[in-house]
Amino acid sequence: MAFDFPDQFRFADSHEYVRQEAELVRVGLSAYAVDQLGDIVFVDLPEVGDDLSRGTSFGTVESVKAVEEMYAPITGKVIQRNEAVLANPEELQNDPHGEGWLLVIRPSELAQIEELMDSATYSAKVAAA
Hints:
- The protein is of the alpha+beta class and 129 residues long.
- It has a single domain (9-123), classed as CATH 2.40.50.100.
- It is 24% helix and 36% strand.
- It is built from 5 helices and 10 strands.
- It has helices at residues 31-37, 83-87, 90-94, 111-114, 119-128, and strands spanning 9-11, 16-21, 24-29, 40-44, 51-52, 57-63, 67-71, 76-81, 103-107, 117-118.
- The chain has a 7-stranded antiparallel β-sheet.
- A hairpin with a 3-residue loop joins strand 6 and strand 7 (67-71).
- The chain is globular.
- This is Glycine cleavage system H protein.
- Belongs to the GcvH family.
- The glycine cleavage system catalyzes the degradation of glycine. The H protein shuttles the methylamine group of glycine from the P protein to the T protein.
- The glycine cleavage system is composed of four proteins: P, T, L and H.
- Its cofactor is (R)-lipoate.
């Protein structure tokens, strides 16, 4: 299956994406990862105000196939979480790159974004998987 990964996104090896929005960053799970999970039934996210460290678990996503941890693609503080996804996990499945976003983070270091894969690199990675 071919996926369309937005050019303005950057991706972590663990399939989370970031989209910079001024001094904040929106975080979500890539369409590829969501597709691999199948029907999503539960999402667990950190609280607003929590500090995240790049590479550490910040929550889980549960599907009919598996429970997977999600990892912070950058270090920062949670400013907002998507309550709609928590209430209705199908939102993540229906529109992972849009309304299915997970968190808004105030990054500690914006430079960490540049260390993530661009959409072309990520697309090649998942195509080879």
